[in-house]
Amino acid sequence: MKNSETSKKNRFVNFFAKIKSNVKGYFDATHIKFKKFFTKENLSYDFDKYKAFTALQAREVFSKESQSNERKDKIIRIVLMILKFVVVVGVAYALCFVIGTFGVILPKSFFSLFVFFTTIMFVLQLISTIVSSTKNYYISEDNKVLITFPSKGASLFLSKMTIEYLKQLKNTVDFYLPVSIGIIIYTALTNPLSPLPLYSVVWIVFPVIVMVAIIVLLGSLISVLYLQYLRLVKIVPAVRLVLVGAIFALIIYGAVLLIGLIPPDLNLLNTWNTIRANIDSFLNTFSNVMVPVSWFCNSIVGVTSPSYKGYRLNGACFGKFFAVLGCTIVLFFIVFFVVKALFLHMMTKSVDYEKVNEKAHHRNHVHHKHSTFAFKELKISFRTFEVSATYIVTYVLIPLLIYLICKIFDAINTSMKGNMLSIMFIVLLIVLPLLASNAPLASAYSREGHAGYIKKTKPIQPTTPMLSKLLFNLILSIPSIFVSMYIVGIFGKIDIGTVIIVGVCVLLLQYAHIFYSSTLDFVNPKNENYQIEGQNAKNSNENISTVVAFVISFLFAFLVFFFFQEQVLAHAETFLPAAIRLLIICILTFGSCLLLYFLKMKAYFMEK
Amino acid sequence: MKKPVIILVALIYIISIVIVGFIGIQARVFNPVVFVNDLNVNFDENLVKIDSPAEGVDYAYRIFANSEVTFTVTANVLPNDATNKRCVFEKRDESSSYTFETQFNGEYTIASFKCEAAPADGVYSLRMKVKPTDGNKSLFKVFDIFVYNF
């Protein structure tokens, strides 16, 4: 009995001794690794290879289409970049001017507005960094090539992180930096009560460099979790459906809540002081709650004090800046040690987590040649989550947003001019997102890469496979437009006949833009870019498609306003004549785009 | 859709609400001015009405005063929701035998008169003009009060 008790005690002691030794061993090993990492040899490892890796990837990521190295072209590119930057600064300044002139917020709240804008941009950029860095680190096609180079994993990982940093820095310089400079210039020049210092326009560069580093480091850290999520949805696709469904349900719930909040008689003019006070209070509360972002903004524009007017940089601001910088350095080491290990693991097995589909033995049905292509493209579109989710969300959100805005306009006691304005904006808000969502079609054929050229070898007219690619959008936009116009009809600002004709006009415009975007793609193909750079390659056709979407939408909305206003001034009882004129214009637009599509297709794909 | 497109669509959404909310609303007078269309003058119950006032005089009253007397005359405007409800009492005679002061309680303008005693077997009169303060020059009321001691 006593012996058994002693052996039990010994086993217990041995168990803890073993744990103790394991923990000590782990710490010793980590300590040795840590010490070894900081040795001269390790730190001076192939720095040249790191540079080579970075240059290699940067060339692929930042190489512009048809980029010429001639001096003249370089100068034009630089001038265009500066011009773009100045335009964004100007637009931001103009927006601040409108906000300040109409007294949307109090002059002293511009700092809070800056904090709010910075937070929104931080969150949006963090989300895009998580997605982008997951693709860049673990799933990128070039991993298979890069892993074969004789170098240490750390240099490769650092080069990947550098590329991610440069990508995000470019995005920040494109939007956040010029908008922030616009806000600072406006408040410095025109806000006598609490001006932000003008020298922040130069100083902002340093905090922004640190901010982008934080975003990239946090994104890299969270990418580990995102990768696990991607692996999970590969194995259990239902998880993604449930998550998307839940988010969608939340959005609809939020919209319903918002609709419920709309008062029956909304009078912006009468309640403007209350609204302004609420906006001001919200911004100030937000700024007080978001302490880290406020700190960051303080390190850009300084702090305010009762002893002087406005904001100034002082020792405390620099202290905050260096505190943020210190956190960034700590974060860098955490990311380096945590993410690098997973990165190297995934590099060697970049395809091992992909789902292995068991071969299902289906009976081979022979379909008609046209329906074969149509079903194939529809299946691909539905199965490609990024494609189906984007379009479905857009097509469902448009009627929801239209319902919300119709409710708001209905609550406002509008004059006849107000009615015309509200019809114009409703039409604009249906057409604009609808057409802007067609931008990916301007790269639909190019995304096939070299496989796209197989079209020419298929024993069928190219019309069938090419039209099949557009089928998903052509079909799904019909219910979206139908429901949106039905909602417009319910609110009764225009008669039902006019609603139907305007709905047909919107559908024709949508089809016209779909065909126009597709024509852009095969007239100026980018198959090579997608073949080399993968699905994230840049495509100027998408940008052209988006710009055209904006132009068409504004033009159509203006025509709606103009024609309907004419009917009102002529004291006409119905808007039908105006709607018929719009219909003629839309038929002509659609007809010309369709004709262009087939003529170009004939020229590019049909052999004589 | 790209981020800038989403931001632009959201901006247009907000701008459309603001434009329709400010430019497109039904014209409505928010603080309408209701003008006075009549005056109502009430006299103290100690005053006795004289049935036939002089020409150009709306009301005539008398009061016996062998010593100092006080009385009030109250004026209010019609309609009841008139913007300016205050009235003005103007002295229209040369007599120095009486004094008065006015008070306005939001609805009524009350004039409190203090009259000296009338001379023995004699009489003096006071003539007042009551008018609204909304600038209507054609609307006024004139009243006489005779103070007697016989």
Largest sheet of chain B: 5 strands, mixed
Strand content of chain B: 35-45%
- The averaged pLDDT of chain B comes out at 87
Span of the ends, CA to CA of chain B: 101 Å
User: What's the quaternary structure here?
Assistant: heterodimer
For the largest sheet of chain A, list the strands in their spatial order. Answer: 1-2
Distance between the termini of chain A: 101 Å
General form of chain A: globular
> Number of DSSP helices of chain A?
23
Sketch the topology of chain B as an H/E string, one letter per element: HEEEEEEEEE
Please tally the β strands of chain A and state the result. 2
The helix/strand series of chain A, from N terminus to C terminus, equals HHHHHHHHHHHHHEEHHHHHHHHHH
| Parts with pLDDT < 50 across at least 5 consecutive residues of chain B | none
Provide the number of structural domains of chain A: 2
Write the layout of secondary structure elements.
The complex is a heterodimer of chains A (608) and B (150).
Chain A (H helix, E strand, L loop, with lengths): L1 H36 L2 H4 L3 H16 L8 H31 L8 H30 L3 H4 L6 H22 L1 H15 L9 H4 L1 H31 L1 H25 L10 H18 L1 H11 L1 E3 L2 E5 L2 H34 L20 H15 L1 H27 L4 H21 L26 H6 L2 H20 L5 H28 L3 H7 L6 H30 L6 H30 L3
Antiparallel strand pairs in A: 1-2
Helix pairs in contact in A: 3-7, 4-8, 5-7, 5-8, 5-10, 5-12, 7-10, 7-14, 10-11, 10-14, 11-16, 13-14, 16-17, 16-19, 17-20, 17-22, 19-20, 20-22, 20-23, 22-23
Chain B lengths: L2 H20 L15 E6 L4 E2 L9 E6 L4 E10 L8 E5 L6 E7 L4 E7 L6 E11 L8 E9 L1
Parallel strand pairs in B: 3-9
Antiparallel strand pairs in B: 1-4, 2-3, 4-7, 5-8, 6-7, 8-9
Nutshell version of this structure?
The complex is a heterodimer of chains A (608) and B (150). Chain A is mainly alpha-helical and 608 residues long.
